[in-house]
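Fig. S4 source data, part A: sequence.
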Amino acid sequence: MNAKIIYKYDRQSYDLSIFEPQNALLLAMFLTDDVGSSGKSFIKWFENPDNDCGSSNATRYIVDEGIITLTPAWKIDDDECIAQGNYFQITPDLMIQLLHLWEIIYKQEPLYIVITINDNQVDVTGSNISF
C-alpha cells in the first residue's frame, strides 16, 4: 500500500492537510485520534501475536494473516466496510515502524508532519517550513 499524509499543527492539535489515496484517511485518523502521544502502548499491542482485534476512538483494527486492516469505528460491519473500499491495510512490521517514527516526530511538535508509505518502507518527517 502506498500512501501520503500531511498534517499541519493548528494551535492545539494536528489537522489533516493532505491524504492520498482516499482510504489513507483511516490511517490518518488512527494516528491522530487514536494513537496521539500513546505510540508505545500501540506498539506493544501490535507486537503481541495474541491480539487480533481492537477498537479506539476513530478506528477498529483487525490483524489477520499478517495484515492489519483499519476500518471506521462508527461502522459496525467490517465486511461491509471492506466491500465498499472503506479500509486501510498495512503489515504489522510497517505499522510498528510507523508508530516508532510517529512517536519521535509527534513529541517534537513540528508545524508539519509528513508520512510517506511506499511498498515496504515508511517515512515520517517533521518540518517547520511551510509547503
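Fig. S4 source data, part B ends here. Residues 3-127 form one domain.
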